[in-house]
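Annex B.
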Amino acid sequence: MAVTLAHAEETGQGVRLLPTVLSGQSVHLLKEPPVPSLLHLTASARRDSFSRRVGDVFATAWREAHPDDPYVLRDLAADPVPHITEAWTELCDNALRDQISDPARLHETARTPAQREAWAIVRPLLDELLAADVVLIATPMYNYSVPSALKAWLDQVTFPRVSLAPRRFVVASARGGAYGPGTPKEPFDHQERYLRDFFQGHFGVADTVFVHAELVNARLDPALAALRPEHDASLAAALDTARTLAKDY
Ligand SMILES: Cc1cc2nc3c(=O)[nH]c(=O)nc-3n(C[C@H](O)[C@H](O)[C@H](O)COP(=O)(O)O)c2cc1C
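FMN dependent NADH:quinone oxidoreductase: predicted structure tokens.
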């Protein structure tokens, strides 16, 4: 039986999935969805955000191209996912010990009341991830890396040897500085590197595409005022790329 997540509401900014706990012990999750579907995650602590703008342009273009296909928006900043608990680590230990890597069998790792509580948090997150074939992550760079809101989600949905191939990942990002090839700060880009390496190394997703709006701090920091035209160009290019890219997904 395939799971269809039907508890959704129109928010004006897209369809938001409501927390859903599916009943039944044997749930077969879709590995290769028959229709295109988009899971759109946002992670910026601010609403008026550049990563949101880039991500929204992708999502809008995608939805125009796929008017009848499922779209789910989850705002990890406004509606934070809790950090994993000790019981969550036990789910992971049980999966490793019993060699459970099929997502349809992961529920078998929840055996104690505390583990079932941990699983009740994981399951809706994992269901909507597995039901998507395109995952769009709109995220800022925070402290050379990703916001803890995004990391908390990644911790919750990551289990040993669970592959997400052939899903496709797109990251819409904003950062205060410039980290492109040849820039002095290139070696400090642990945002793209972390996400790219993790998606490839753990999830088996090799072709994550990154779209960055850079030098956002030039809008505020007088010391960076001379770089404002470069920021404007970077933002315009990111919005354009996101719009164009969405047509291929
Ligand atoms: C907590 C925090 C940490 C940040 N760390 C960095 C950083 O390490 N490097 C950087 O270039 N910009 C950094 N910035 C600037 C943001 O990346 C920049 O403001 C970006 O536009 C934020 O994305 P948003 O517009 O989607 O909120 C940081 C901003 C905040 C709030």
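Residues 44, 46, 49-52, 140-144, 174-177, 216-217 surround flavin mononucleotide (CB under 6 Å). The chain has one domain: 8-85+117-246. Further annotation is deferred to the next reporting cycle.
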